[in-house]
């Protein structure tokens, strides 16, 4: 039963790996998701098209395939010798951004059109209208799906563990090879993931509560 | 101050040279519906034009074309001598000079009353926050909701919300104010508080285009009444003349329906 205590350093390394993969790709996904959601509701047709293509392409590609491309094509063709953490964050971030963009767009659609009309009629530009008036109200509705996608992202980050990144999934392989009871390893790994996912849930519960007061 | 009422007392909507808003042979379709048909309308500086007519006659659409919330299919619209630009920075700039008050208020739901009135000044006019707040409080006092400044719109009555919306528009120092059925969503007892604010604005010489069903307001505040039906301007006249002696059958019919209750 001392899988954990015997390998505390390894577990810590794996946990930190999962957290930093999740945090890095979540940050990228949220930024890209905001931009793409903006593109999808933009009055400029080429931007709308770009947004649609982005979402369609990334949302419909299996994540594993995206990782294969990221790890075996991108370094060969574009950036030889690129860091595997960076590749994993970009792959996970882009993939998740397509979901986040759609969650935000569903939020945007729940904001009454009159809000945007009022903003435009006092002279705000499209970007100002979106940023100052529409998105703050859209976010509130989009929070529950956003938290789901970030939890899914946490678990998806395990794929990065199979691609040369040290995370919880990755250390599970190491420990299995060392001959520990696989069930016990899995329990500890699961607890590691649960700590991350429960933290995300808690964060979003707090956000929801705070945004609720604001009206 | 009473330029407007003097003009009104003169009793005739004599064409003034100083045109602020002009529409020339404006046409618009919603699918198969020809909602604006060859609309010609000019609004002089300081003039109060009230647009009335049955539902679906195109009067709201007409009002919304002036700041290009609705695009038009053909024709020309100018505001203060400048044609309406395409969507973009130029149009945003023009819109900041055209105040708009909506039927459903459309106050920013996530901002306080005070923030609603300062937002445009700060983000569009780049006024500093303190000056914007001072002006906002003065305007809120002027429309009689100064004590509500720190509340959220949902905490206010409809009449209060609409007065805040008027203050929000005034905060931009607009050249002209558009009112799109400002009292249609209000409970009867709240209509007057909004109309009084609008009356005061008219007396102060604000150029106004008002789409409304409030005939009392049209009588007392308008320099000119524009009667619309089926996408056309059927009749334009001074209010006294229009209400006592409408020329067109369509207007007679409309007035007989609304005035005899």
From TrEMBL, chain A:
Bilayer topology term: Multi-pass membrane protein
Listed GO cellular component terms? ATP-binding cassette (ABC) transporter complex
User: Where would I find the ABC transmembrane type-1 domain in this sequence?
Assistant: 15-204
Which keywords annotate this record?
Amino-acid transport, Cell membrane, Membrane, Transmembrane, Transmembrane helix, Transport
The record, for CDD domains, names:
TM_PBP2 (cd06261)
Give the source's domain of life in one word: Bacteria
| Compartment(s) where it occurs, according to its Swiss-Prot or TrEMBL record | Cell membrane
Segments traversing the membrane: 15-37, 49-73, 182-204
- What does the record give under GO molecular function? transmembrane transporter activity
Q: Name one GO biological process term.
A: amino acid transport
- What protein family is recorded? Belongs to the binding-protein-dependent transport system permease family. HisMQ subfamily.
| Name of the protein | Amino acid ABC transporter permease
Organism field: Streptomyces boncukensis
* Source lineage: Bacteria, Bacillati, Actinomycetota, Actinomycetes, Kitasatosporales
Automatic annotation (TrEMBL), chain B:
Instruction: Give the record's GO CC terms.
Output: plasma membrane
Q: Which family does it belong to?
A: Belongs to the ABC transporter superfamily.
Tell me where it resides: Cell membrane
Enzyme class (EC, first level)? translocase
> Residue limits of the ABC transporter domain?
21-255
What is this enzyme's catalytic activity, as reactions?
a polar amino acid(out) + ATP + H2O = a polar amino acid(in) + ADP + phosphate + H(+)
- The UniProt entry lists the main location of this chain as membrane
Q: Does the keyword Nucleotide-binding apply?
A: yes
MF GO annotations: ATP binding; ATP hydrolysis activity; ATPase-coupled polar amino acid-transporter activity
InterPro entries in UniProt: AAA+_ATPase, ABC_ATPase_HisP-typ, ABC_transporter-like_ATP-bd, ABC_transporter-like_CS, MetN_ABC_transporter-like, P-loop_NTPase
What lineage does the source organism belong to?
Bacteria, Bacillati, Actinomycetota, Actinomycetes, Kitasatosporales
Q: How does it sit in the membrane?
A: Peripheral membrane protein
Protein name (Swiss-Prot/TrEMBL): ABC-type polar-amino-acid transporter
Q: What are its E.C. numbers? A: 7.4.2.1
Q: What are the protein's UniProt keywords?
A: Amino-acid transport, ATP-binding, Cell membrane, Membrane, Nucleotide-binding, Transport
Which PANTHER family does the record associate with it?
AMINO ACID IMPORT ATP-BINDING PROTEIN, GLUTAMATE_ASPARTATE IMPORT ATP-BINDING PROTEIN GLTL
Tell me which CDD domains the record gives: ABC_HisP_GlnQ
């Amino acid at each position: 039963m001392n899988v954990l205590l015997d390998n505390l350093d390894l577990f810590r390394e794996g946990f930190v790996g999962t957290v930093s993969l999740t945090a890095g790709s979540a940050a990228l996904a949220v930024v890209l998701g905001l931009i793409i959601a903006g593109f999808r509701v933009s009055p400029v047709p080429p931007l709308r098209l770009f947004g649609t293509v982005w979402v369609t392409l990334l949302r419909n590609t299996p994540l594993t395939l995206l990782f294969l491309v990221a790890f075996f094509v991108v370094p060969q063709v574009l950036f030889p010798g690129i860091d595997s953490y960076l590749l994993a964050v970009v792959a996970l971030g882009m993939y998740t951004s397509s979901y986040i963009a759609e969650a935000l767009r569903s939020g945007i659609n729940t904001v009454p059109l009159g809000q945007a009309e009022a903003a435009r009629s006092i002279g705000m530009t499209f970007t100002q209208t979106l940023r100052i008036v529409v998105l703050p109200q859209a976010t509130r509705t989009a929070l529950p799906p956003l938290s789901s996608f970030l939890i899914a992202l946490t678990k998806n980050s395990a794929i990065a563990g199979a691609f040369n990144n040290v995370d919880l999934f990755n250390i599970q392989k190491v420990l299995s090879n060392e001959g520990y009871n696989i069930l016990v390893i899995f329990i500890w790994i699961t607890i590691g993931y649960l700590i991350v996912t429960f933290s995300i849930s808690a964060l979003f519960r707090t956000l929801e509560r705070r945004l609720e007061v604001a009206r | 101050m009473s330029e407007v009422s003097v003009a009104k007392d003169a009793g005739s909507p004599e064409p003034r040279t100083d045109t602020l808003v002009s529409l020339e042979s404006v046409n618009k379709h919603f699918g198969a519906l020809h909602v604006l048909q060859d609309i010609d309308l000019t609004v002089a500086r300081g003039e109060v034009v009230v647009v009335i007519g049955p539902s679906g006659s195109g009067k709201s659409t007409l009002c919304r074309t002036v700041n290009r919330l609705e695009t038009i299919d053909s024709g020309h619209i100018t505001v203060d001598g400048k044609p309406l630009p395409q969507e973009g920075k130029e149009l945003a700039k023009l819109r900041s000079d055209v105040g708009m008050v909506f039927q459903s208020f459309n106050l920013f739901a996530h901002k306080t009353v005070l923030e609603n009135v300062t937002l445009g000044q700060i983000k569009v006019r780049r006024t500093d926050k303190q000056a914007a707040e001072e002006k906002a409080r003065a305007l809120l006092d002027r429309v009689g909701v100064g004590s509500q400044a720190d509340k959220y719109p949902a905490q206010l009555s409809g009449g209060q919300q609409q007065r805040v919306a008027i203050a929000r528009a005034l905060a931009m120092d607009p050249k002209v104010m558009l009112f799109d059925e400002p009292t249609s969503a209000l409970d009867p007892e709240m209509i007057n508080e909004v109309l009084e604010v609008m009356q005061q604005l008219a007396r102060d010489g604000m150029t106004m285009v008002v789409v409304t069903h409030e005939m009392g307001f049209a009588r007392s505040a308008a320099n000119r009444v524009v009667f619309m039906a089926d996408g056309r301007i059927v009749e334009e006249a001074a209010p006294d003349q229009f209400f006592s002696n409408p020329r067109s059958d369509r207007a007679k019919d409309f007035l007989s329906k609304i005035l005899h209750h």
